[in-house]
Amino acid sequence: MGPSTGRFGVGTQRLASPPIRGRAGDLAVIGALLTALAQGRGGVLVIEGPPGIGKSRLLTEVMALADKSGVRTLFGEAFEYQQTVPFFSLSMATLGADVKSGG
């Protein structure tokens, strides 16, 4: 079990994330990718799997690690009924991007 680096919201309250379990290897790879990104090298990270496997929890950790590395993140989500709209989650993530950056 690793330490909690992320935070998650419950209503309007931000709470520390519970410790993440069984993801040390994944977090090492992600940490290396974030380091490379912070140094100006690009890349792609795909997190996929069946429901309930911990993708959202892992993404919470990724976003917290990125924040600590000075890497800006965006978050978007979509539900099954929205799958017919191309790039729905990407468009939702970018809608408030300028507002969050102060631009």
How does this structure look, described?
The protein has two domains: 72 residues, no CATH class; 30 residues, no CATH class. A hairpin with a 2-residue loop joins β1 and β2. The chain is mainly α. Strands 1-2 form a two-stranded antiparallel sheet. α1 packs parallel to α2.
- Principal-axes shape call: globular
Describe the largest sheet.
2 strands, antiparallel
Regarding quaternary structure, what we see is single chain
Q: Kindly report how far apart the N and C termini lie.
A: 39 Å
How many β strands by DSSP?
2
**How large is the share of residues in beta strands?**
5-15%
The percent of residues in helical segments reads 40-55%
Unreliable runs, pLDDT <50, ≥5 residues?
Answer: none
Number of domains: 2
> What is the rounded Rg?
15 Å
Query: Taking all residues together, what is the mean pLDDT?
Result: 77
Helical run tally = 4
- Spatial order of the strands in the main sheet? 1-2
Looking at this protein, list some descriptive labels:
single chain; mainly alpha; two-stranded antiparallel sheet; 2 strands; 41% helix
Task: Give the secondary structure arrangement, pairings included.
Elements lengths: L6 E4 L2 E4 L7 H15 L16 H14 L19 H8 L1 H5 L2
Antiparallel strand pairs: 1-2
Summarize the structure.
This protein has four helices and two strands, in the order ββαααα. It has 103 residues and is mostly helical.
